[in-house]
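User: For a benchmark we're assembling, each entry needs the component sequences followed by a predicted structure for the full assembly. Here are entry 17's components. Please fill in the structure.
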Amino acid sequence: DIQMTQSPSSLSASVGDRVTITCQASQDISTYLNWYQQKPGRAPKLLIYDASNLESGVPSRFSGSGSGTDFTFTISSLQPEDIATYFCQQYDSLPLFGPGTKVDIK
Amino acid sequence: QVQLVESGGGVVQPGRSLTVSCAASGFIFRSYGMHWVRQAPGKGLEWVANIWYDGSYKYYADSVKGRFIISRDNSKNTLFLQMNSLRADDTAVYYCARDRVGGGDSTGFDYWGLGTLVTVSS
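Assistant: Structure for entry 17:
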């Protein structure tokens, strides 16, 4: 079975900082990876699909890259409204989410 | 606009059954695979089950296989999750979600409902 890991599990950064989250799959999943943002008390929101494609309506400060087993999610300039937990999710096999990364403002 | 509205959550005793529903609107429901995803209090996201656009294929997480049944009524634009033999660790917010690409294979979740809370407790 595929396992998904994310790092870090949490981070604090200042407004305007570049934030990077990594997601690793235990086996090659090509680019079958999505990224979601979940704010407290809200449903998740799709931000990036197929590892690097920005979902319609999502600000361009969000981006994703990677293939195979190693993936990166980046917020180029952190904004206060970006405070949330971010999850990666693979769909090479039955869907599986990573454990999440909680992002706070320093 | 796409809307997914879950209902049917509540408090249920261990070992009992409960069915939650998801009413869909704003898109051609019969053309999209649909999913249930759950989130236990303070925990991460767990995919539960999905069903192809026409109901022909259904897949389940190991944690619910043999206990939960996903189904759909394309004439009523409604998705269901029948949960049997409920356990305390099934306590979660249950979200229905639309697959990003129409058809069958799972590709991700582009629209989500607000969720319905299921609490399994005596």
